[in-house]
Design goal:
about 140 residues; elongated; mainly alpha; about 0% strand
Length: about 140
């Protein structure tokens, strides 16, 4: 891999990582808020969206319990190494702030509990606001 491509690719992986985190967090907020209002939000109960959302937090929680590092973190670190950059630290303004938002120091069990708790909230939302297939006759926008 050309060294010149490794750093921008590492930044793209970091942005993708943030997008996954935001999908999991904002997805749950959208599911709950979209079902609590008088007018339902489009798409928050679609089966495909809900399966992707459940799978995302399920994979994160399972990795935490198994002691595995997120593949996106591994890929980003490998790319940074290829670029001659440290895995964490000063890589530029955006990368540095994204790292500050995404990565914290705590024992692994803390993250496993947090991810599992969030996963339980996603399951509770699944039960309380069940998903509907696209052709369920639901005409709400």
């Amino acid at each position: 891999m050309p060294t010149a491509l490794a750093a921008p690719l590492a930044d793209l992986v970091l942005i993708l990582h943030l997008a996954v985190v935001l999908f999991v967090i904002i997805g749950l907020v959208a599911i709950v808020a979209g079902n609590m209002g008088r007018r339902r939000w489009p798409g928050v109960n679609r089966l495909g969206f809900r399966l992707a959302h459940l799978a995302a937090i399920g994979i994160v929680a399972a990795q935490a319990w198994l002691g595995q590092t997120c593949p996106l973190t591994l890929l980003e670190n490998w790319l940074r190494h290829q670029a001659g950059q440290p895995a964490y630290g000063r890589q530029g303004f955006i990368a540095d702030w994204l790292h500050r938002l995404l990565f914290y120091s705590a024992p692994d069990w803390v993250f496993a509990l947090l991810y599992s708790g969030f996963g339980l909230l996603v399951l509770a939302a699944w039960c309380y606001f069940p998903p509907r297939p696209r052709n369920s006759g639901d005409r709400t926008p």
